[in-house]
Amino acid sequence: MQVVTTVRELQDYADAERAAGRRIALVPTMGALHAGHLTLVDEGRRRADRVVVSIFVNPTQFNDPKDLAAYPRTLEADLAACEKGGVDVVFAPEAPELYPDGAQTIVELTELAKPLCGRTRPGHFRGVATVVTKLLCAAKPHVAVFGEKDWQQLTVVRRMVDDLSFDVDVIGCETVREPDGLALSSRNAYLGKAERAAAPVLQRSLTAGADAIATGERDPARVLDLMTKLIDAEPLASLDYMAVVDAKTLAAVDPLAGELRLLGAARFGKARLIDNVGATAR
Ligand code: PAJ
To answer: From residue 105, how far is each of 70, 108, 154, 248 by CA, in Å?
Structure first.
């Protein structure tokens, strides 16, 4: 496994692999790798000949400097996990490599970045879209693999790739969960014992909403009310948002119809956790 830190080296690698007729998969991450990230690596290996994992705690997507400072950095363990997972190249640049002095180009989505996490985290998706653009230009992948865990991010990336005609297939992978339903997340490390025990309420409430839709509920307000009440009943949870929206456009749907996504965010102590599940209303 190679570790490269400059865009030039990664582009040279990509050019050589492409010239040899090999397909490249990119798995963008911020490190602190867990089993969720590693399923993306597995998917990349299934779909390409070479897997590149980027590890970069992207400063521009953190709207809170304290959150950026506290974000777990575990490069040694991450490299070992990548090696074990069959990764070919880890791209681990320092910030000035991706944001050189004088950089002023940003990528911004006008609508998809506004609701849900965009409301609580202004500028977050601008940072995500900008860094993912840079990573695609650096790794020149045939496929880029993302988790459904960050549904709005996946939606933003798909839209951006279409809008900018990036020649890459975006693949979404199912959320990997703990046995009690909690979605794996680097931020779970912030949970105290009682908060950890309380945190699965987020997935339980989303699933309760999806079940209501599956059994015929078509009023989004009633689904929202049901989900919100479950979160409110957990004293250690503080609700950020709950929503039921069109899975692709993230727009409100009333009455509920078609492919839907139920998304939620809540704080448990220092950790702000997000999750989502799908539902279909026919
Ligand atoms: P990060 O939070 O490190 O996540 C990297 C990728 O792993 C994302 O595509 C995310 O959706 C996926 N992922 C996280 N937890 C998962 C789980 N439990 N199951 C399946 N996939 C999971 O998302 C980012 O980094 C950044 O915003 C990034 C795209 C790298 C841009 O900086």
So the answer is: 27, 10, 21, 27
Q: What is the pLDDT of residue 155?
A: 98
Average pLDDT of each block of 10 consecutive residues along the chain (282 residues)? Answer: 98 98 98 98 98 98 94 97 98 98 97 97 97 98 98 98 98 98 96 98 98 98 98 98 98 98 98 98 94
Write a three-state SS string for 50-67. Answer: EEEEEECCCHHHCCCHHH
Q: Which CATH architecture has domain 186-276?
A: 2-Layer Sandwich (3.30)
Residue minimizing CA distance to atom 31 of ligand 1: 128
Ligand 1 atom at minimum distance from 149 CA? 11
Per domain, the residue ranges of the chain are: 2-173, 186-276
pLDDT at res. 199: 98
CATH topology of domain 2-173: Rossmann fold (3.40.50)
Ligand 1 binding pocket (C-beta < 6 A) is 28-30, 36-37, 39-40, 58, 61, 128, 131-132, 146-147, 149-150, 153, 173, 175-176, 183-186
- C-alpha–C-alpha distance, residues 182 and 164, integer Å: 35
Measured from the Cα of 40, ligand 1's closest atom is: 21
Distance of alpha carbon 52 from alpha carbon 211, whole angstroms: 38
pLDDT value at position 190?
95
Distance CA 91, CA 26 (A): 10
